[in-house]
Structures are given as C-alpha cells and as structure tokens.
Specification:
By secondary structure, this protein is α/β, with parallel strands linked by helices. It folds into 2 domains: about 1-300, ANL, N-terminal domain (Rossmann fold, 3-Layer(aba) Sandwich), CATH 3.40.50.12780; about 375-505, GMP Synthetase, Chain A, domain 3 (2-Layer Sandwich), CATH 3.30.300. It is built from 17 helices and 18 strands. A hairpin with a 4-residue loop joins strand 14 (about 350-360) and strand 15 (about 365-370). Helix 10 packs across helix 11 (about 220-230), helix 13 crosses helix 14 (about 430-445) and helix 14 (about 430-445) packs across helix 15. GO terms for molecular function: acid-amino acid ligase activity. One of its GO terms (cellular component) is cytoplasm. This is GH3 auxin-responsive promoter.
Length: about 500
C-alpha cells in the first residue's frame, strides 16, 4: 500500500473538510481593502488618495471611479519606469526582487512585470488551494507519491542590477516549497537549461528513470515534449514509459484545440485540470471535476473587475475606451464576455491583463477564458472571439476526422474585398477549398454577427494548410520556444504579412 500517499491524501481530504465554504464576493471586498491599506503610503497610493478610498462606505465604487485603466505600456510609462531607477515605494511598498518577462502573444519586446515577495506568497497560497482541491477528483493514494513533471521556462533567472528576471513559470519553479522538491521533475539542474530543445532532450534521456504521475505546462510545448520522448524510446504512447500518468495540468491557453492531438499520445484516459497562471499572478484554477471551468483566486492578493466586452468599449488596438464601465464580482452575469481587470500585490492597478473571460457559475466564481482583447476579430463586424474561433476549428476536426492543434487568421483585404484568411496546422491531407466552405458554413450558422458581416463587406473564407511545426518554428524565430509562449490566433495585416513571408520560406 502507498503509505505516504495515503497520508498526503488524508491531509488533503481533511483540509478540504475543515475549510469553510468560501464567499468570493466577501473575499474580494477584503482583498481590495488589504491592497489599499498596504499601498496607501506609496507614490501611487498617495496620488490616488487611497486613504480616502478606505474611508468610503463602498470603496469598490470610489476605487473604479477614481483610478483610470492601465495597460502595461501606460503603467510602465507613468509609474514602473521609476523602479528601474532604483526608486522604492512606487506602486507597492519596497521594490520587487523579480520581474516576469512576458512577450506573450502580441510581440517580440518583453514586458517586465514586477513580481513582489507578496506575489510569490500569493502564488504559493493559490497553489496550495489547488492541491487541496485535488480532494474533489477522487485520485488514488498512489498518485500522491508520483513525480510531477513541470515544463515551463528556464529557472536559470537573469541577474539584473538588484533583481532577477525570467518568465513567471521559471520564477515560480525557482521558488517551489522545500517539501515539494522530491516530487518535482525534471529537477533543478535540468530546469535551469535555457535552450528549450536541449532541456527537452535531457528530459527524454531521463524519462525512463522517473515515475511520473502528473505533467504541467502549455499544451503545444507539452505535446512536443511527449512526442520527443515517444520517438526517442520507440514507443506508441507515453503511458508505455510513464504507466502511472494520471493528471495533466494545462494553463495559459484553452485546451480545446489541442485535445484531440494531445489525447492521441496517451495510452489511457487521464484527468485534465485547467489552471490560469499569468505573468501578473495566479488568477484561477479548476477546483472540481464536474466542470472544466476555473475558480477565480478571490482570496489571494488579486482584486478583480470586469468590463463588458462589447465593440463600443474596445479600441481597434484592443485597449479599453476611457468610458468603458466596470462591474464587480457581485454584479457579473453569465453568458457575457468580460475583459479582465486586476489590481494586485505586485502593484498593478486597474490593469488590463489582455484576456477575456465568461462566468459559468457566478456563485462559485468559476470562469472560462474566451480569448484576448487584441484577438477579437471585428474588422468587418464579424465579432468573433477566440473561443468562437476555437469552436470552429474543433468543428473542422470532427467533420473531417483530423487533428488541428494550431491555427491563425487575419481579416485580410484582397483585390475584391475582405476575406478571413486562415492558416490551419495539420498533418492530414485535406482539400483547402472544402475546409474553407465548411468553416464559412459553420461560422454563419453559429454566429449571427458573422452571418451579417458575410452579407456585407466580408466576402468569404480562404484556407491554407501547413504543418503544425511551422507554428512552433515561427514562435522560435520570433520569440523563443517553450515557457509561456503562445501562438497568435488573430493577427493584424502587418503582422500577417510577416507570417506569410515566413511560411513561404519553410
């Protein structure tokens, strides 16, 4: 019998039983007051009169009315630039020991997002909450004795002046609790390797020595790692070398587009658990098996606001209009896309994180990521968010019985008007014209705004089929492989021109 595993499982079950039912709305009110109290004497807190906000009957209303929206560029230009001059107490007490580098899906220039000690603690606390939630998934005691393979960015952080820099997954992995280190794979030595291909090769070389029960990382890069292990060891599925693999923890992007190709690498069903760890903080995690939605981390250093994601509130570049309204967690509705706004213990304030979400269960504060504010395809009124595009690609997979793990598109002007020009990543031999017709048909049936657009300026759909590896090489050429890097789902015409030139050379 797995004695240690039984003990760990028992502790998790007991913690789950003893933890009182949470009230997300009350937790958020408490978090906002804690943020304002701790930051009231910073430059930002003094400028925006946090002392007065704390005295208000409803601080949340005055908070949203008093402080403008910020994105990274505005936050850096007005406030965070001072941190790099050595100034302390700018938007949060003291100065950060870490900066999370994030080029994300929107460009080559890395953002440098402060990560304070308070944020490290908040991430750890939310991580413990997620581990505790495993009590809901009915996993056997043996699972809690197996290794957990985390494939993020390198933990060999770069030293700059008085701080360290790296992607948030590398920063988090470099701060794992001591009690977790025996379970953590690939281990500190391999995790510090900067070159992604070299790191994956080392993982493959050591795969037979590990008993892996769970893996964690962005789906596209995990797939490539699994394919490498399978190829190097002449396997049919990953379960031939890791028979006890039971859980995959996804994160950062919707798992749906990868599900078919990912599961093809498995020898038996596994439990998929979604997480939402952004460069700005640990936002949400899946807390129960009855849904694939994620519970917002409402009690760990992040205060959330929500902007209804409607065309009149969104500028062409994905930013918010100055008059865009916000609602609190107490005011949200189901079946409504929202742009996510956060204020955190790292000194981000009313910060547009760039993701859009919808609520699936308001009482539990459970959400799904629906897309990116910059990837909202509305050039000709089609109003397609990424979740609608994901659904269309999944439809193509089902109709043609193929795997399409990657895609990108652009509303591109051709000689006779606009078309949605799609690039689909697949190894299957398909007729692009047939795929284009099916995509167009599905989008018209599923989305009324798209149907209206098709009767006006949007002429139709064009499809180009390429190997999935082209997408990974694009990321490698423009950013780097692995870590938090995600593929752009929607590009503007300038970026799309560069993409098409890149594809032509492959």
């Amino acid at each position: 019998m797995a004695i240690l595993g039984a003990v760990i499982k028992g502790i998790i079950d007991l913690k789950d039983m003893l933890t009182p039912e949470s009230n997300p709305v009350e937790e958020q009110e408490k978090v906002l007051k804690e943020l304002l109290e701790k930051a009231k004497d910073t430059e930002f807190g003094v400028h925006y009169k946090f002392n007065q906000l704390l005295e208000a009957t409803t601080p949340s209303k005055l908070f949203s009315a008093s402080i403008p929206f910020f994105d990274y560029d505005k936050m850096h230009a007005e406030w965070w630039y001072k941190l790099h001059k050595g100034i302390e107490n700018v938007t949060w007490p003291g100065k950060p020991d870490y900066y999370a580098l994030s080029s994300g899906t929107t460009g080559n220039t890395s953002k440098r997002i402060p990560v304070t000690d308070d944020m490290i603690s908040a991430i750890k606390s939310t991580g413990i909450d997620q581990v505790s939630a495993l009590a809901n998934f009915d996993l056997p005691a043996e699972f809690f004795e197996k290794g957990i393979l985390m494939l993020g960015s390198s933990t060999d952080l770069t030293e700059k002046e008085t701080h360290l820099e790296g992607e948030i997954s590398g920063i988090s992995a470099s701060n794992i609790p001591f009690w977790f280190r025996d379970y953590y794979k690939p281990g500190e030595e391999i995790a510090q390797i900067e070159d992604w291909d070299e790191r994956v090769q080392k993982i493959s070389d050591n795969a037979k020595n590990w008993d892996i029960g769970a893996i964690s990382g962005i789906p596209s890069w995990i797939e490539l790692m699994l394919e490498k292990v399978i190829a190097d060891h002449n396997l049919t599925t990953i379960h031939e070398i890791w028979p006890n693999l039971q859980v995959y923890t996804s994160g950062g992007v919707a798992f749906g587009p990868y599900e078919k190709s990912f599961m093809a690498l498995m020898g038996k069903p596994i439990t998929v658990i979604d997480t939402y760890l952004a460069s700005e903080g640990f936002v949400a995690f899946q807390a129960r098996p009855e849904t694939d939605a994620m519970k917002l981390a409402t009690n760990n250093g992040i205060y959330f606001e929500f902007v209804p994601f409607r065309p009149e509130y969104i500028n062409q570049d994905g930013s918010l209009t100055d008059d865009a309204p916000t609602v609190t967690l107490a005011e949200v509705e189901k079946d409504q896309d929202y742009a996510l706004i956060i204020s955190t213990v790292s000194g981000t304030w009313r910060y547009l994180i760039g993701d859009t979400i919808e609520f699936t269960d308001i009482e539990r504060a459970e959400i799904k990521i629906t897309g990116r504010t910059k990837f909202f395809l509305n050039t000709v009124g089609s109003q397609l968010s990424v979740n609608k595009l994901d659904a269309a690609v999944k439809h193509i997979e089902e109709v043609f019985n193929v795997k399409v793990p990657e895609y990108t598109l652009c509303a591109k002007r051709f000689e006779d008007d606009f078309y949605h020009s799609w690039y689909l990543g697949t190894e299957s031999n398909l007729a692009a014209e047939e795929v284009a017709l099916e995509l167009d048909k599905h989008l018209k049936e599923a989305n009324k705004n798209y149907k209206v657009a098709r009767s006006k300026a949007l002429k139709g759909v064009k499809v180009t089929l390429v190997a999935p590896s082209v997408f990974y090489e694009w990321n490698g050429a423009n950013k780097k492989k692995g870590g938090q890097v995600k593929m752009e789902r929607v590009m503007n015409e300038e970026k799309f021109k560069t993409w098409e030139e890149f594809v032509a050379k492959q």
